[in-house]
Write a structure and sequence with these properties.
By secondary structure, the protein is mainly alpha-helical. The protein has one domain. The protein is built from 16 helices and no strands. Helix 5 packs antiparallel against helix 10. The radius of gyration is 21 Å and the shape is globular.
Length: 366
């Protein structure tokens, strides 16, 4: 009875499902920030090793991939598998189609690179800034269309510029001077706003195609499998190149030994939050990928609230987060400007779609 009502709720209120997803996505981002800035460095303290933040990111990508895969597999065997997607049935994971598997593999590999960037960002900046910048994927949908589908670049220039201004304002109110320095702001915008969201822009479309060929629970498992597989290879490659392989091995062992439950907590949030996001991409919910990404970006606002609450209850958890009311006001203004740019981009996308549909109807009537 519950699953039937839940299925009806999903079908009638997919946008509310995405808001629930955003709450969980923001929660795992804040938890990841705590892991990267506090728990992992504390767990790997050793007089013989000087571990870099890049190595910490590779460590979490590896351990998170392994523990996350186990968590995904276990949770998919519980009622949560059907709560994520009521179309899911036990056994679906092993019977996913080759085409859906190809989408999962491509999506997972892209996500591995994007996740490494996010983890590095969580080690450098507070979660509210990282989440806001890394959920602005929708602003890249239009530039991609401009390049490949003949959209006039003048139409997309101002939304992108506005979003960029919002990103700068978001990064300004840092508690540490390095956040306020131009170099720190530029680095965050290039890596978190530009590179990560460009990767995610392609990944969102690919995973949307894959989710329509399977149920979200099964597709998410295989997407995460390939993310974990690619993440481990990428991580080993990075630490070998940077000469931190021994430090990496020590950090992986220390993380698994000392803080596995924090990683599992993140993976539970990811299983539910990202699962519902994949569900909303199914055609039966009648939401475009742009709409899904836009609504999911609400996690940036939620993350700012979570970060403020955590720092109020446990001061200095995130030293890079704004401390004063004035700083938080500036950050929320930046979030508002960024969201306005994304909303503007979404409206242009919708208008373009309506124009194409109108043109098709006129051609049929001729």
């Amino acid at each position: 009875m519950f699953l039937k009502r839940w299925s009806e709720f999903q079908l009638k209120h997919p946008r509310w499902l995405l808001f629930l997803s955003a709450l969980l996505i923001a929660a795992y981002m804040v938890n990841d920030g705590n892991i990267m800035q506090n728990l992992l460095p504390q767990a790997t303290e050793h007089p013989s090793y000087e571990i870099t933040k890049v190595t910490y990111s590779c460590t979490y990508l590896t351990v998170g991939g392994i523990l996350g895969l186990i968590t995904y597999l276990l949770l998919s065997q519980t009622p949560l598998g059907k709560i994520v997607d009521t179309d899911y049935k036990k056994g679906n994971i092993s019977s996913i189609s080759k085409q859906a598997q190809a989408y999962a593999a491509t999506s997972g590999v892209i996500s591995a690179f994007a996740t490494l960037i996010v983890l590095w960002g969580n080690s450098e900046y507070d979660p509210s800034a990282v989440t806001v910048l890394t959920t602005a994927t929708v602003i890249f949908v239009l530039p991609i269309e401009s390049l490949f589908r003949g959209l006039d670049y003048k139409q997309i220039m101002w939304p992108v510029i506005l979003a960029g201004i919002g990103a700068v304002v978001v990064m300004l109110p840092g508690a540490e001077l390095k956040t306020l320095q131009a170099g720190g702001i530029i680095l965050a915008i290039i890596t978190l706003l530009l590179i990560k969201n460009l990767l995610s822009g392609f990944e969102e479309v690919i995973s949307g195609d894959g989710a329509t060929l399977s149920d979200a629970t099964s597709f998410s498992f295989w997407r995460f499998f390939w993310l974990a597989f690619a993440g481990a290879i990428i991580s080993v490659g990075v630490v070998v190149i940077t000469g931190q392989y021994e430090e990496y091995k020590f950090a992986v062992k220390s993380m698994v030994t000392n803080i596995p439950y924090w990683v599992v907590l993140t993976m539970i949030f990811v299983f539910m939050g990202m699962g519902w996001k994949q569900v909303a991409k199914k055609p039966k919910f009648k939401l475009s990928i742009t709409e899904v990404v836009m609504i999911s970006s609400f996690s940036g606002f939620v993350s700012a609230v979570y970060t403020a609450v955590v720092n109020w209850v446990w001061p200095e958890t995130f030293p890079e987060a704004p401390l004063s009311l004035g700083h938080w006001i500036v950050r929320f203004i930046g979030i508002g400007i960024l969201v306005l740019g994304m909303y503007w981009a979404t409206k242009i996308k919708q208008q373009r779609k309506e124009n194409e549909q109108e043109s098709e109807r006129e051609n049929k009537n001729v």
